Amino acid sequence: MSEINIKIGENQKSFPAPLSVAEALKSVDRDLLKKSLAAKVNGAEVDLSYELQPTDEVLSVEPILTETRDGLEVIRHSAAHLLAAAVIDLFPETKLGVGPALMDDPRYGYYYDVIAPRQLTEADLPVIEKKMRDIAKRNLPYRREVIDKNELIKLFTDRNEPLKCELVNEKAGDTATAYYIEDTPFVDFCLGPHVPNTNKLKAFKLLALSGAYWKGDANNQQMQRIYGTAFATQEELDGWLKQREEAERRDHRRIGKELDLFSIQDEYGQGLILWHPKGGAIRMEMENLLKEELKKRGYSFVFTPHIAKRELWRISGHEENYADSMFAPTSIEDEEYRLKPMNCPFHIGIYKASPKSYRDLPQRYSEMGTVYRAELSGTIHGLMRCRGFTVDDAHLFVRPDQVREEVADCLDFAIKVFETYGFDKVKFELSVRGEAENKIYLGADADWENAENSLANALKERNISYERIEGEAAFYGPKIDIKIEDAIGRIWQLGTIQLDFNLPERFELEYTGEDGQKHRPVMVHRALFGSIERFFGVLVEQFAGAFPFWLAPVQITVLPITDRINDYAESVFKELKQAGFRVESNLKSDKIGAKIRDAQIHKIPFMIVLGDKELEENKIAVRERKVGDIGQMSLEEFKVMARKLRETRALASV
RNA sequence: GCCCGAGUAGCUCAGGGGUAGAGCGUUUCCUUGGUAAGGAAAAGGUCUCGAGUUCAAAUCUCGACUUGGGCUCCA
Prior knowledge:
Layout: E1 3-8, E2 11-16, E3 19-20, H1 21-28, H2 30-35, E4 36-41, E5 44-46, E6 51-52, E7 59-65, H3 69-90, E8 95-96, E9 110-115, H4 124-137, E10 142-148, H5 149-158, H6 162-171, E11 175-181, E12 187-189, E13 203-213, E14 222-231, H7 234-249, H8 252-258, E15 262-263, E16 274-275, H9 277-296, E17 300-301, E18 307-309, H10 310-316, H11 318-321, E19 330-332, E20 335-339, H12 344-352, E21 363-372, E22 388-398, H13 403-420, E23 426-432, H14 445-461, E24 466-470, E25 479-485, E26 491-500, H15 502-506, E27 511-512, E28 518-519, E29 522-527, H16 532-543, E30 556-560, H17 566-578, E31 583-585, H18 592-601, E32 606-610, H19 612-617, E33 620-624, E34 628-633, H20 635-648
Parallel strand pairs: 1-7, 17-21, 23-24, 30-31, 30-32
Antiparallel strand pairs: 1-2, 3-6, 4-5, 4-7, 8-9, 9-14, 10-11, 11-12, 13-14, 15-16, 18-20, 19-20, 21-22, 22-29, 23-25, 25-26, 26-29, 27-28, 32-33, 33-34
This protein binds one RNA strand through strand 13, strand 14, helix 8, strand 26 and helix 16.
């Protein structure tokens, strides 16, 4: 039995041993081998150099092609090894940690964690990258070797690689696979597969340097992480870098400054947002949309304080589970108080203020509730992560039989709102209980089952496809998370619909049922944006500052061509203001080109250009920021059009 | 909080042991020009703060604060 029978696509062939995967692929099509980086033999990933073994069965050989996702992963993984090889070459004392490919992180393609003999700085990145290129050009093969576990540990011990020893000890069976890049001092403990040789790595780049904890645990030693990315071709890498620039161009912090939307100032504290008039105008519109929908859907509006007695947070469990994220207590007349990190206990207080009957449910309390969380300084990031932020919060107190319907309405609500902003790709994730290993889940099994079913049924009822994630539920109940994809393909985690078995117990919530007995209501936490600040930041990036008419902080600007027209401009300005539009006028002595340029830069949807002609004919000339001059019309006609845009919350202006 | 950068005019940034620089913006004057920059002048800065080294510090050193990229955490 020395025959090797293989099947590649439709081709079935037999060869005498020995036969490598590369030879097998070549036998079918020479180009196929060129396009392949590795292969799958009966589904298992192997290198091209892998020797096929004679068996009775037919081996299915499937190439991993350059332009596939699997191929990209091989490239990135191999690039990570190349990075490590370069670092070791430059700094022989370096100890290696781990270096995976990143396939789902839009920012990076791979990293390697190292302990270098000295702290690396960003100035080292080009040097390391150059070394990577040098090694790549030498066209060195990646060589795989299966050796005895203890032998590999000895090898890493000799090389003074304690972290690698630790990994081999934990992960290897009796034998372990080691990878070399030939003729470099690099060895890794790794399953593979890799590209056959370094020449296959043509498009890679190092991007950033950061700290990272060994095994992701803050109690462990901090290492240095070097991030990079890699693609199959230079064109793809260039495209990706361009996309990255685009994201930078849309950065809400930059646009927020340019358009005077908000600021964060040292004197007031990091992570605390000052909303300027223009940001405030947008926020008002955001809140108005929510309020309209809340009213339609039977929510009531409640208002609660920013601070409460410490005892309240003891009852709610926040003192126990959430203290790290709360601002420290403050005292008055020997009573301790704490700023609120969440709104729920207050809404519970409203529920408890009077006894409830089954007829009173559901109770739906909503509030734009500003909360304060003591986020670590390093995590604060513009509007996306702050220490004071406003939750578009609501808590529903419902009977168990009402959960499905209430949740379904929350889903409708979410879809409606996100659609209005032009987010047509909304993703839902249902997080349910997993195998309770370390996690202790509160509540009875039957309750969990009912709750998970209610959530799943609500999703199914609305024909919403969703991803079910085991083990991601909070300890107090299952949830649906809402994520959206923005204009340049980034995913943002926003709101959540969360069932809670915990707080109703802790606060002993009740209602009197039809049977005259006391029952415990189910509590639903529900937020669509999560944080108004954060969602505002997402909107800034989504529209790159060019907000649709209904949201735009300045909707119209009036631009007279000469100062003979200023009076007419004033009257047009006043009339539009009267009609409730956010309008400005520019009476400076600039030429019209400069005024238009200024308005374009500020992304104002409509410019009204007024000259002698318009004055004579009592008309206005309208320019839309995207399409340009749209011609003359009467002010009345323009108002009708603008009103329609405002009322329908249209995304495009024409 | 931890690791690596950065902090100079309202903004974007250059400079760098010995009078503080540019562009944009602002104000004023000239200009009254028809769809993305007309011209001129002026105002505007304890070079983040505090210590140290030095005859001399915005510049070098240390520390603090803020900020950017990450880690961790999360909305």
